[in-house]
Write a structure and sequence with these properties.
This protein has eleven helices and ten strands. It is 40% helix and 19% strand. The chain is elongated. The strands form two sheets. It has a seven-stranded mixed sheet with strand order 1-5-6-10-9-8-7, with helices on both faces. It is α+β, with helices and mostly antiparallel strands. It has two domains: 3-90; 110-343, Bira Bifunctional Protein, Domain 2 (BirA Bifunctional Protein, domain 2). The structure holds 3,4-dihydroxyphenylalanine. 3,4-dihydroxyphenylalanine (DAH) binds next to strand 8, strand 9 and strand 10. 3,4-dihydroxyphenylalanine is lined by residues 177, 179, 219, 257, 260, 263, 291-293, 314-316.
């Protein structure tokens, strides 16, 4: 074995490579000169059998040759590909003026989009967005909100319970609303408070076009000295206009929620018929958007606030419902079926 043979091999390889004009012959060439059964591989494998001096010399030369051939191969391949593209273009087989293939783009789920719009609207009014746990203690979901066990108001909020108890008390559940965060926020900070809390809620529901067992809510809470029902109305009026149009009007009617006094439901005049009565508002001219009210003084006292000094308002709305109204979606179940034909429309 001599380095002379390697030189001959190199010359041969380079000559034949220079004559190659297509990818198949190029692959044959690679197998021939660099493949497992090539002479070069054979030489490299046989190195260990050579006497030390020769091994060093031949080894260095053979390895250099392998690198040189690999580089030459890559260059040739590159050259051929460029040439092919050139011919394609010249022959008009590639129309470089055609628009590219669109890359499918991800986007936010319609409920997330609406949730973000709602939160952003309140952020502009000085509210801060916070989050709370989806698995909640009975205490925060019910007790602390003045909904004791066996209270009829619990009927509205049937839910999924977690098989976990601490000291045999405080059972856990999937929260039925975002309202527990009113108490959680007040427990950890002092007034003034202005927060919105978006998040998933769960209810044990027979699902239909307007009910899902999982839903998204945005809760709101403002507590400070001198907060009145007028602040509640002004804030929610602004919200209605931001989300449903400047010409919107709002209506507040008495409603009962154990954690507010007085409690109200807030409606907007129908943005489809402007209050005339149509299928969207089911002939009523008004569409209910959320529950709201003045935070019950007992709740303020329970978290250690002085109810003589502080007052507050709270509200809570379903995001799916708002999204359905905005996009004219008829069935809430569409949101979570993950059918791209539906989702891609938003
Ligand atoms: N948590 C109530 C529900 O899920 C909605 C609600 C009503 C929230 C009145 C409030 C409120 O903050 O003041 O139906």
């Amino acid at each position: 074995m001599s380095t002379g043979e390697l030189q001959t091999l190199e010359a041969q390889a380079n000559d034949s490579l220079a004559a190659i004009a297509d990818e198949t012959s190029l692959e044959d060439w690679r197998v021939n000169y660099l493949g497992r059964r090539s002479r070069l591989t054979e030489i490299l494998r046989g190195l260990s059998a050579l006497p030390l001096e020769e091994r060093k010399q031949v080894g260095a030369a053979a390895n250099r040759l392998r690198e040189a051939l690999e580089t030459a191969l890559a260059e040739r391949r590159d050259m051929l590909r460029k040439r092919d593209v050139q011919t394609f273009i010249q022959q008009g087989r590639i129309d470089v003026t055609l628009p590219g293939r669109p890359i499918p783009m991800g986007r936010l789920h319609p409920v997330t989009q609406t949730q973000r719009d709602i939160v952003a609207c309140f952020e502009k009014m000085g509210f801060q967005a916070v989050e709370g746990p989806e698995v909640e203690w009975d205490y925060y979901n019910f007790e602390a909100l003045r909904i004791p066990e066996h209270h009829p108001a619990r009927d509205m909020w049937d839910t999924m319970w977690i098989d976990y108890h601490r000291d045999g008390r405080m059972p856990m559940l999937l929260r039925t609303h975002t309202s527990p965060n009113q108490v959680r926020v007040m427990e950890r900070q002092q007034p003034p408070i202005r927060v919105v809390v978006p998040g998933k809620c769960y209810r044990y529901e027979a699902t239909d076009a307007t009910h899902e067992w999982m839903l998204t809510q945005v809760e709101g809470l403002a507590v400070d000295e001198g907060i009145s029902m007028a602040d509640l109305k002004g804030t929610l009026y602004e919200f209605a206009q931001q989300l449903f149009g400047q010409e919107r009007r709002v209506r507040f009617r008495c409603d009962y929620f154990p954690f507010v006094e007085p409690g109200a439901d807030m409606s907007i005049d129908c943005f489809v018929c402007n209050g005339e009565g149509c299928s969207t508002c089911k002939g009523a001219g008004w569409i209910e958007i959320m529950g709201a009210g003045m935070v019950h003084p007992e709740i303020l006292a329970n978290v250690g606030y002085d109810p003589e000094r502080y007052t507050g308002f709270a509200f809570g709305m379903g995001v799916e419902r708002v999204a359905m109204l905005r996009h004219d979606i008829e069935d809430i179940r569409l949101f979570y079926q993950n059918d791209l034909r539906f989702l891609e429309q938003f």
